[in-house]
Each structure stands twice: as C-alpha cells, then as structure tokens.
Amino acid sequence: MGSVGLVSPQSMHFAQPMRLRSGAQLDDYTLVYETYGTLNAERSNAVLVCHALNASHHVAGVYGGADRSEGWWDNLVGPGKPLDTDRFFVIGVNNIGSCFGSTGPTTTNPRTGRVYGADFPVVTVEDWVDSQVRLLDALGIARLAAVIGGSLGGMQALDWSLRYADRIGHCIAIATAPNLSAQNIAFNEVARRAIVTDPDFHGGHYREHDTLPRRGLRVARMIGHITYLSNNAMESRFGRELKSEVLGYTTQDIEFQIEGYLRHQGDKFSEYFDANTYLLITRALDYFDPARGHGGDLARAFAAATCKFQLVSFTTDWRFAPARSREIVKALLDNRIDVSYAEIDAPHGHDAFLLDDARYHALLRARFERIAEELT
Amino acid sequence: MGSVGLVSPQSMHFAQPMRLRSGAQLDDYTLVYETYGTLNAERSNAVLVCHALNASHHVAGVYGGADRSEGWWDNLVGPGKPLDTDRFFVIGVNNIGSCFGSTGPTTTNPRTGRVYGADFPVVTVEDWVDSQVRLLDALGIARLAAVIGGSLGGMQALDWSLRYADRIGHCIAIATAPNLSAQNIAFNEVARRAIVTDPDFHGGHYREHDTLPRRGLRVARMIGHITYLSNNAMESRFGRELKSEVLGYTTQDIEFQIEGYLRHQGDKFSEYFDANTYLLITRALDYFDPARGHGGDLARAFAAATCKFQLVSFTTDWRFAPARSREIVKALLDNRIDVSYAEIDAPHGHDAFLLDDARYHALLRARFERIAEELT
User: Fold this and answer.
1) Which residues of B fall within a CB distance of 8 Å from A21?
2) I need a labelling partner for A312 at 20 to 30 A (CA). Which of A127, B5, B49, B214 fits?
C-alpha cells in the first residue's frame, strides 16, 4: 500500500450563476479540487469523497515541499489502499463557503471587489451537492461509481443518493445522521455564539479590521473537539493526569493534561480556519434534514433512492451515535433498498471515521472491491 | 406538605484565620446561611444541605416581597416533605468563594479595602467542609444527623464522611462522582476559557473596570446547560422545532427553539452569577479526588468512613453517570460499610437531582424516616 505521492490542487471556474436554497445567488464561483488515479475509458470508475467541517479537497497525497501535508483521508485513499487509486478515479472537492480555495467568505465578492466575509450567503448540503454535480458535468463524468463521506460528508453522500439517484452507484455514509439532534444543534450554537460575540468578529468583517476572532474560534474548536472524542478515549488518553506533580491551585493556568491538549487544539484551529466558514458549515449541518420535505418521514424521503448503500457507525460515537445510522438503515429497508450496515466497536468516538481501524478499513476495502467488480 | 414559608438569611463572621488547601489564608470570613425547622434539645437532628455550582444557602422557603424566590431544593425540604422540617433542623450554607453573600470574589478584601475579584484564593471542597464545620461548632452542633448534597454538593457530603467521620450519621450523595472525568474537566476548562478570554474579564478585576464578562459567562452557562440535560430530554422538549415556520437562512439569528432556550439561559446567568466564582467553583470540582492521597485507591480512601450511606444516580445523567456512583458504592462495600444505592430511571439527565421525581423523593423520604427513628 502506497501513497498517491505528490499532488496539486486544480481549480475550475463556473461563470453560470447558482441559485442557493436560501434564495441568494452566487453570480459565479470557483471550485478547488484534487483527483487521484485515472479515469477509465468508460468514465465509470469515479468516486467522489465529500469532506466534513474542517477538511478540504486535499484527501490524499502530499504537497511538494511541505512536511506533514498528508491529505485528511490518506490512510484510506491510495494505491492498494481500501479506496484503491489503481482502480478508481478519486475526486476531492472543497465545498463553497469553505476556506481552502473554493469561493467562500475569504474570497473576493465580485459585486463589491472586497472579501465576502459575513456577506457570503448561507449554504446547505444541497447547494454543495449541486455544485459538485456541476463539477462532474464539467469533468465529463455522468455517473459516479460511489460517493463516500463521513459525518457532514456522509450527509452529502446521502443527498446525492436522494436527488441524483441516477448518477450514483453506491452511497457510503459513515458516522453520520439523518439530521442533527437538539443536542447537536446546541453544541453548534454555543460554538457560533462564542465566535459571534468575540469583539474581534466585527459582524463577520474582521478582515477589514485586520484582525481575526481567535478567542471565539478557540472556544468553538475546544467544544467541538470534546464532542469528537469518546468519553472513554479521553479518559484513557488523559484521565486526570496532571501537568506537574504539584497542584498549582490556579483557575487560569493548566493543571490537567486534558486542558493543555484542548487549548493546543483551539490555538492551532484559530490560526488556520475561517470564522465565517465555521458559522456557515455548522449551519449547513443544522439544516440538513431530508425527511423535512416528507412530513418528517425518513422512509418516504428515501423512496427516491436507487443506489446501493453502505452505512457505518462507531459504538463510542456520541456525536452521531449508532442509533442515528440505524434510523437511516431502517428507512432504506422500509424501501427494500440494498443496504449493508456495520457498527464498528471502536474506542475513539466520532473521530474514528478518520482513523485506521482494521475492521473498518477491511469493510470499506470489501465494499470497493464489490464496486470495482461491478464496473468490469 | 407545606413550605417553610418566609425565611431570612443569617450571617456569621469568623475572625479566626483559615488556612486553605492552596496554602493561602483567609484572615477572616463571613458565612451566610439559612436554617429551617427547630434544633431539638439533644442537638441531634441537624441536617446540612450542601449546594452545587450556582446554588446557595437559600435551600427552601421564600423571601418576603420577592416573587419566585423559592429555595433551590424547596420541593424536598419543608414540613411534611421528604426532608421534613417538622423533624429536622436543616441548614443551608453559602460556600466561601461563591457570590451570594459569603466571603468571596465579590466581597471586600480586608487587606486592600477593594473587592477581592481575581485575588480571592482558590478554594476546594475540603476548604468548604472545614468552614462548614466551624459554622456548626459555632451553632453548638457536635454531630449532624445527615449531610446531603447533589453533584458538587454530593462531593461535600462525601468529604464530610471521610474527614469528619465522627460528626456525621448519614451521608446522602446524589448524582455525584468520586472525581471528575477528563471529559468533565474538559467542559469546565472550555467554560473557563470563554470567561477568561472575554476582553471584559480584565484579568478578573472587571468590577474595577465597571464591567462584567457577560459574553464569557453566557457561553460558559450554555455549555454547562447542555451537560445538565439528557440528550433525550433535550430531544423531547425541543427536538428540531423551528422558531418560525420559514427558515431564515442565517447563522446569527435563532432558527431552532433550542437555540433560543440556550441563549436565554446564558443571558439570565450572566446577569446574576459572578465570573470569578464560576472559575473557582469549577476548579473545586476539578480538584476533588479523595483517592488521590491513597494512590488512586478509592476503597482505601473510604476506609476512613463510619457513617451510613445513601447513593443515588439517574440513568440519563451523562455528566455524572451512574457508573461513577457505582465506583463509590464499590469502595464502600469493599470496606463493609452500610450503603444503599438507587439508580433512578429518570429522563432529565443531571438536573434530575433537583426535580420532583416520585421514586426519587419516596426514596429520600424513607431514608430520612430511618434517620429520624435513629434519633429517638
């Protein structure tokens, strides 16, 4: 098993306006993407990888001259890996509204000549999928062998299966949910409030004030990070381990190792992630709810699906618990749709979908072998 | 079952310095407290109620001229109620470091003549219990029939049983834990960072700057509130209910009812609770760990206990889960100590300890009847 090696992002400009679910319109936009492997002559071996909150189009491989630049799913995607780039043409796209190159709050608003900032419109999972469809049209790919994603990426994969049923062979939705619970929304909302009430937020136009709402982003990331890890993982990794052997009796300095870890995660995040993007992407999570247009009946929503499904959840994931995946499985079974479901006994919580668990990867390898066989 | 009716807080000044666990010293201090019922001639029917993070000495009854001024455990304490003030002399004490009258960050530092603010020393559960002991000495109460508390209040009850074993007949520890988990500390730490990094915090001397770190307190309370409620309670009460029928496609305005609820809780809290107190009390939670002085062996820690124990947990409490109470029960059983344990099937999460659940209150009623019989 190897790496896809050195990769470079590509970009494509779309001059045709796109109407968003909010009613707003993007007059034009750019998508940044990467591809790995080779599109076959039948153009049938393409697999789209959808990213979650803070990831990007950079799924696999490394950038030249950059240490530790492996893509976020590099353990899954590459020659001989479960999603085998010797067999599949893999595409990663940075979603609009994100902050890694595609049109979003950090890019220039053509109407004003200034950075969008808070003026960038609210985007939804459906908007992202629509924009991904346009990219595939431009690449001449009429049908995807599969769409795969974890967490928010899984929601995009589900939306593909519902609204572009004839353009997708397999939907692989991992550690995801048919919608956010009240508790999920609550955590998102606290994180957003931390950002929005940071005096350096300036109503979302912080770049014009030459500053960044770092305080808010740090707190937002710390909250998020707690929910990505399982209680047990946090306990076995940090427990009550102290930073030094003697208690300092302080409320502001670090006493416990878990505090230092969380602060470090918050600091890192606040330096590379855009605050407006954080607001937009958590909102896209909140809004996703395919049953909403069907009176809350998820089975009716999935009546539109025709592809084959692989659902995966992780036992210790309390952000998107196995019960949420089972709701999707039930809705699919109610429609007699081909679905496999695996509940992986992994200790890591929600983050498990990004990690290299043997049973999890063996399962995805088997699924992609089945998909590859169907192509021939 | 009635109310204890109109009540008034009392206060007692202690001129004798108190050395704290941190090494710091309070030269003198005041404790504010309330009592309900009548101390019997043998002075044997006193029950101490210990409060948690944001509560106070005002356990039961109402204040004259104040609407909605019921004490925080008014459903439990009163004539004919489970903790029956016709039989027991009940004492509620505001802990030092709190912000409801006892010496703390909002009171005047006698050394400087200014409000303590951030100069108030870090306090621990053990410090609180020591100060409670002094109050009981002053009231002429050599031995308590029982100490009862939930959450952080339960930790104080446990500490009483360990360090003042000969002064307590029963320890009733509800929805508590032998120490905080890494996840518990993590939530406390995020809340503290939100407060400390609020520009209006001014290093904890916000009152001198005539302001309050309301932004930080709001976020802290929102985080806390999520952890007090069970996932299911939040789901059945709010679910994905929208504020208005049409989505607004906004990241800053309220779309979902749960958002409005949390913001309201945060707003309220930021108006009445002191930020330095929040830091101190969450730190006291972090530090509590009776096994620490015994090589991490909780059973060895509880070898010092001689009173009878009642432990109670709630099935949906994920902040202090039943498993944490069971650790305490096991440590007690290892020492062949008299302990009853009830795991109440309640939907409300951690907050259940404050609510009027029939099985829960019947259990406490039975316990206090047993205690009353032992007095006669």
Assistant:
1) 249
2) A127
Residue A10's SS3 state is: strand
Identify the residue among A21, A179, A217, A252 best suited for mutation to test binding to B, counting B beta carbons within 10 A and taking the highest: A252
In total, chain A counts a number of residues equal to: 376
Mean pLDDT across A77-99: 98
Rounded Cα gap, residues B197 and B146, in angstroms: 41
Given a contact cutoff of 8 angstroms between Cβ atoms, the answer to whether A31 and A24 are in contact is: no
Instruction: Answer yes or no: do B234 and A193 touch at CB < 8 A.
Output: no
**Could you tell me how far CA A84 lies from the centroid of its own chain?**
20
Q: A residues 24-43 near B, CB within 8 Å?
A: 24
Average pLDDT, integer, range A351-375: 97
The residue type found at B70 is: E
Distance from CA of B3 to the nearest CA of A (A): 35
Is there a contact between B241 and B257 (Cβ–Cβ < 8 Å)? yes
With the C-alpha atoms ordered A285, B188, B55, B203, is the resulting torsion angle positive or negative? negative
Angle, CA of B88, B89 and B92, to the nearest 5°: 125
List Cβ neighbours of A293 (8 Å cut-off, separation of 6 or more).
Answer: A301
pLDDT greater than 90 at residue B284:
yes
Half-sphere exposure of A300 (CA within 13 A, CB side): 8
Neighbours of B11 (CB within 10 A): 13
Tell me the two tokens of residue A148. 């795969």
Contact indicator for A69, A62 with CB cutoff of 8 Å: yes
CA distance A222 to chain B (A): 6
- Interface contact A218, partner B, CB < 8 A: yes
Q: What is the mean predicted confidence (pLDDT) over A19-48? A: 97
User: Is the CB of B294 inside 8 Å of chain A's CB atoms?
Assistant: no
Output the six-digit token pair for A131: 């924009």
User: What is the per-residue pLDDT for B376?
Assistant: 76
Quick one: how far is CA B22 from the chain centroid? 21
Chain B contact for A253, CB < 8 A? no
Residues whose CB falls within 8 Å of the CB of residue B145, separated by 6 or more in sequence, listed in order: B44, B45, B46, B47, B88, B169, B170, B371, B374, B375
Q: How far is B324 from chain A (nearest CA, A)?
A: 13
Whether the CB-CB separation of A66 and A49 falls below 8 Å is answered with: no
Of all residues in chain A, the percent with pLDDT exceeding 70 is: 100
pTM: 0.97
Q: Are residues B240 and A182, on separate chains, in Cβ contact within 8 Å?
A: yes
Shortest CA distance to A3 belongs to which of A81, A64, A67? A81
Distances (CA, A) of B370 to B145, B338, B373, B375: 11, 13, 5, 9
- DSSP 8-state symbol, B267: H
Mean pLDDT within A270-287: 98
Q: How far apart are CA B344 and CA B361, in angstroms?
A: 10
The secondary structure of chain A in percent helix, strand, coil, rounded to multiples of 5, reads: 40, 15, 40
How far, in Å, CA of A335 to CA of A246, rounded? 61
Residue A171 pairs in a beta bridge with A147, A309
Tens digits of per-residue pLDDT, A296-331? 999 999 999 999 999 999 999 999 999 999 999 999
For residue A14, list its beta bridge partners.
Answer: A29
CA distance A256 to A241: 6
Interface test with B, best of A183, A214, A316 (most B CBs within 10 A): A183
Is the separation of the CB atoms in B46 and B38 below 8 Å?
Answer: no
Counting every residue written for chain B, the total comes to 376
What are the φ/ψ torsions at residue B364 (nearest 5 degrees)?
A: -70, -35
Instruction: State residue B1's pLDDT score.
Output: 78
* pLDDT beyond 80 at A376: no
Tokens coding B160:
């009483």
Closest CA to A161 of A324, A306, A332, A292: A306
Tokens representing B328 are 């305490």
Mean pLDDT of B161-190: 98
